[in-house]
Amino acid sequence: MRIEELYQLFLQHPSVQTDTRKLKEADLFFALKGDNFNGNQFALQALEKGAAYSIVDQVVSGADDRIIVVQDVLSTLQELSKYHRQQFKIPFIAITGSNGKTTTKELIHVVLSSHFKTYTTEGNLNNHIGIPLTLLKVKADAEIAVIEMGANHQKEIAGYCKYALPTHGLINNVGKAHLEGFGGIEGVKKGKGELYDYIRETKGTIFINNDFDYLLEMSEGIGHKVSYGTHDALTTGELISSEPFLKVNISSTPEIGLINTHLVGDYNLPNVLAAVCVGLHFRVPPNKIKAAIESYQPSNSRSQLIESGTNKIILDAYNANPSSMKLAIENFAKLPAEKKVLMLGAMAELGEASLAEHQYIIDLIQKFNWHKVVLVGGDFNKISHSFENFKSSAEARDWFKNQQFTNTHLLIKGSRSMKMEEILS
Predict the structure, then answer these.
(1) Which CATH number does the domain housing residue 215 bear?
(2) Read out DSSP for 31-90?
(3) In which domain, by residue range, is 325 found?
(4) Is the dihedral of CA 277, 268, 113, 289 positive or negative?
C-alpha cells in the first residue's frame, strides 16, 4: 500500500496504537517488533478488540482484509508521520539536550499554549517510535508543535529530523549523558549538534543560550539565532532566589519582571529563560508568559518538592547523569538547612567512563557537610567509600523508614533504572 493510501485510512481513523492493551475502538494498530516482542502476533487480536486495521510486516495466520502488509512497520509508521507533518505550514520546534530537555519542553508548551493551539510530546515519548506517534497526534487546528528529541547515539537526531522536519531548534545544553552510546563528550556534542546541522541546512531558526560558549561554536553558520541567557542576549534574566522555589527576574522585559516558579534548583534558570525567549519570539503577551510559567507544576519525579511532616524532599529521580548529578548536589549543598540527607542512585549508560564518573561524584560529595549520605546500586557498589551503601532502592527504602527523620531536607536522585522514587513508597 502506498503511503498516500495509508494516509487516507489514517484520516478516517486518526488514532494510532502500538500496544493492544491500550487499544481503543477504530484505532489503527501498528504491529511493531522489538528484541522481546513481536506485534505481528497480536494483529488479529487487535482487530477483535476493535481496531479498524492492523498494519503488519509478517504473514499473519487467518484471513482478514483489514490486515495491511507493508515491508517494515516501523519505517511505515515514520513515513506516515512525515507525510502528516508535511500537511502543516506551522512552526515545529525541536528540543534536545543532555539535562532538563523535558522540563524545557513542558515550560515552552505551557507558554505557547496560553496563546496558541499547541501540540507537544507527551511525557518523554522522544524516540524513534514516540516522535512519529507525537507527530500523528497533531490535529488540523494546530498553530504550533513542540517536539522533544532524546538520543543515546550519533545519527539518531539526524534521523528524527527527516520526518519531524523542524523549522526551529533548541539545544538546551550538552553534558555527560549516554557516554557509552555517544563515545564520550565530543560524541555527545556531535550527536546533539545534528539538530543544528539540520536547521543550518534548511535555513531555520534556533533558540540559543548565549551563556554556553560551546553552543555558540556549534551553531556557527546558522543565519537566524534568537538568544537568551544571563547577559548579552535578546532575552536576559537573573536568579533572584532558589529557596524553596526558583525566582527569576526577566531584566530584558520589565513587563514580565519577577517570575515565581514552582521549580526546585537554580539549574532550572536556563529552562525558564528558554521558555520566555520562545514565548516572546512568537509574540505571546508578557502577562501570559509570566502566568503560564508561574502556574507550571513539575511532575513525574522531576525536581519535585515534597513536604512530608517536618521534612522537605527534593525528588529528582526521573533520570541522572554526571552533569545533572553535579548540578543537583551543588544546588542542594547551597540550601540553608541544618540537616541535609543525600540519597543517590547509580548512573547508567556511561560505558568505560562509569567508574571514574561515580568516583567523581563521591569526591564531590565529600567536599560538603551532610547529615547522612546514601548511595544505591550500580558502580557506587564497586567503589570504596564511608557512606551508607545499598544494592537497591528497596533496601534504601527500608533504611529510610527506620530513620524517622524530622526537620530534614532530603535530595533523592538517580538514573531511571534505579527507581529511586520507590524509597518514598
Answers:
(1) 3.40.1190.10
(2) --B-SS-BGGGGHHHHHHTT-SEEEESS--SS--TTEEE-S-HHHHHHHHHHHHHTT--S
(3) 304-424
(4) negative
309 marked as part of a ligand binding site: no
Q: pTM of the full predicted structure?
A: 0.88
Ramachandran area for residue 88 (φ above 0: left; ψ -120 to 50: alpha; else beta) = beta
Q: Is 100 assigned to a binding site?
A: yes
Choosing from 37, 69, 101, the residue where a domain stops is: 69
Crossing angle of helices 286-295/269-281, nearest 10°? 150
Q: In which band, very low, low, confident or very high, does the pLDDT at 397 lie, cut at 50, 70 and 90?
A: very high
Whether 260 has a binding-site annotation, put simply, is no
pLDDT at 185 over 90: no
Amino acid code (one letter) for 205: T
Counting residues of the chain whose pLDDT is more than 70, the rounded percentage is 100
Query: Binding site annotation covers 121?
Result: no
User: Is 101 annotated among the ligand-binding residues?
Assistant: yes
pLDDT, one tens digit per residue, over 200-233 is: 999 999 999 999 999 999 999 999 999 999 999 9
Would you say residue 279 lies in a domain?
yes
Task: Check whether 92 has a pLDDT greater than 80.
Answer: yes
Is residue 161 located within the same domain as residue 98?
yes
98 DSSP assignment: S
As a whole number of angstroms, the distance between CA 377 and CA 389 comes to 8
Predicted pLDDT at 304: 86
The owner of cell 512530608 is 308
414 labeled part of a ligand binding site: no
97 assigned binding-site residue: yes
From 161, 157, 259, select the one nearest 204 (Cα to Cα): 161
